[in-house]
Amino acid sequence: MPDQSIPEARTPESAVPEPAAGSGAGISRRVLLGTAGATGLVLGAAGGAVGYAAAPAQTTPLASVGSDRAMFHGKHQPGITEGLQARGHLAAFDLVPGAGRKEAAALLRRWSTTAERLMAGEPAPHDDTDVARDAGPSSLTITFGFGHGFFGRTGLDKQRPAALDPLPDFSSDHLDRARSDGDLWVQIGANDALVAFHALRAIQKEAGGAARLRWQMNGFNRTPGATAHPLTARNLMGQLDGTRNPKPADSDFDRRIFVPATGEPAWMANGSYAVVRRIRMLLDDWEKLSVPAQEAVIGRRKSNGAPLSGGDETTPMDLEKADAKGEYVVPLNAHARITRPDKNGGAAMLRRPFSYHDGFDADGTPDAGLLFVCWQADPLRGFVPVQRKLDRGDALSQYIRHEASGLFAVPGGAAKGDYVGQQLLEG
Length: 427
Known about the structure:
By secondary structure, the chain is α+β, with helices and mostly antiparallel strands. It has helices at residues 29-39, 101-119, 148-153, 193-206, 253-257, 283-286, 291-298, 335-338, 383-391, 422-426; strands at 42-43, 49-50, 87-95, 141-146, 184-190, 211-220, 272-281, 350-351, 354-360, 366-376, 400-410. The strands form 3 sheets. Strands 7, 8, 9, 10 and 11 form a 5-stranded antiparallel β-sheet that branches. It starts with 28 loop residues before the first helix and ends with a helix. Its cofactor is heme b.
């Protein structure tokens, strides 16, 4: 896991965001919080607590996180190349019995309209819940995809991509089918938890009578700006997660991650395929290992992500380097060795995961781990060969368990005035 995730983006300092449309006049929540340190919540010697005091609006925001905005319309859908967000929701829906192509088209039009408005920091088009009132866009992204079963339900079997064939079984799979797959997939990410939940609720409500929720998962990452300078994210094992992630500046990035404009089927031009895996980390077992033992499993230093062969996080790993006893410094079954693209026929995928924690089992074992999401132009050349290689001898395998899985075709971005998937559903 740790060798292919996106380094956290540094949130730029910016001006106070304009109030969201429909939020009303008056002091915003953000400005009010920004003044609390000077004139707001006060604890007196007598132990009395004074509530938020009325204060004049300030010109300096508490933070710029809320003002950052991603664009809904574009060549690619949002939520693929953006930096990791602090909060995420993944959800899958099934079309209801009797709903077909017409109902699906109407649903995707509603969802696209809703996504465009919410990503701009505006209220939902119908019955807005006010959950995100006074908040800015907070880097909200909403991404839509189609599962294998969607095409049969809409009479579009001939348009189903070959790349959407079901993933093979892997030895580490302990899959809960009720929390896997689905006709439609939605990925929501934002840097504010209320903004993310607001989007999730709006998307669910807009499903109306056309689709019902199949499963939904909640995730999180470090909040942008929480560190003194941009750093690669850490997962719940404490490891830097994403050192070797492909970068948009790479010359072969688009070829590896996105379906070409001339690709097949035509409706997937500029799209990508998302593999989604709920990977439970067996943290009680992992945390019993010493730090050197954990580093041997991964093949990198826990402190800074540097390869065991030396250097810093970005130093190329020397797989041939041996110690005084003649043993490889990076063990043969180390996760970082096995996942290297040059050891997998060049296979690469863009990882964009969220951590999750869903409480504890009856015996106190944490139900926690990674909501793994990876993007590639073809999963049979991206995720599958790497996972097969991991299946045959990854040292990390005994400390993780794959509990849910999905594969979704994510079409390219919608043009202004269009909706996601329009070429498929109206072509």
